[in-house]
Amino acid sequence: MTDSTNTGGDVRLSGISKTYGSFTAVHPLDLTIPQGSFFALLGASGCGKTTTLRMIAGLEDPTTGTVHLGDKDVTDLPPYKRPVNTVFQSYALFPHLDIFENIAFGLRRRGIKSVKKQVGDMLDLVQLGDKAGHKPHQLSGGQQQRVAVARALINHPQVLLLDEPLGALDLKLRRQMQLELKRIQTEVGITFVHVTHDQEEAMTMADTVAVMNGGRVEQLGAPADLYENPRTTFVANFLGTSNLIEAEVVETGTDVTVTAGGGKLRLPADRCGADTRPGGKLLVGIRPEKITLAHADDAGAIADGRNRVTGRIVDTSFIGVSTQYVVDSPAGTALQVYEQNIERDSRLAPGAEVVLHWNPAHTFGLDAAQSML
Ligand code: ATP
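# adenosine-5'-triphosphate complex -> structure
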């Protein structure tokens, strides 16, 4: 889906910020969103993600900085002159127009008379070919959202901005639409910038995620990298359960050795976002599904070289795909462990003395001082 006016290029934000009176919603931000990527701005309510999106759209004037689309500086262009379109949570379809005319609207406004082929292509793209003559109220929420996407894409924008577009849908439909939007983005190949507070949504859909907190991007990366190698406690906790354990460095090399809860743990130095000099304090984290549980009586069978901490199970719950344990340990209270494919009979019960063990390579280290802020 190309257009002679679509020159392509990255979205480049340089020193862009937004203040309202004395309040800074977005601190000066440098961000490059590669052409053709599915990019997510992820963060809790009020972190500045919508404001950032609106500055790309031209709906909000930045206090400082510039917005480039490819080589073009669009900072002073009004929204309708930018090769950008936005899909909002409220689909904002025209209730009196049928689906065909809702999608055709942008073309007709530009004076284009022959719209049948283009609208037909869009209806096919969003798989609503059989709904052309329906009115919006005859469609489900997910279908209406797909019409909103088709309507936004028909003018061949260079970038599609999506502001919590799935926020009004129930969970099951949301999950379906996440895959659907990803498919559409792959098919049209243009840049999608998606704002969401839902970490699972961002991880499912995006190639690159920018995690925002307090008007700043705390970390930028591929979903798996952010999850497995978070650099701040905020990112670690926002993306999942992190099992943070207070630790002190005893030795540094390719691996860092720390003491924690009376025992020793190892982690790769390049997964440490903290001061790794001996005596340095850090928080060591491990994702729950990376941990294996062994009954204390079977501890002798654990392979050498694995990190291990002792503990006692305080809660066991079965949640379909996995068995989740809560374990109290000298290393930390309420450590969480998720194990899959555990037969009912071999689940460990509360009160059991256990050893938690895992591959040191999965461990990450965070700055303990920063987490106190
Ligand atoms: P949400 O998911 O709730 O929309 P968000 O991360 O998208 O949150 P923004 O909408 O970007 O956050 O808002 C960032 C901060 O800026 C918030 O604290 C908000 O109250 C404030 N803010 C946004 N617009 C204005 C405005 N016009 N005047 C004053 N403050 C504003």
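# post-check
The chain has two domains: 11-236, 241-371.
The chain has a mean pLDDT of 91.
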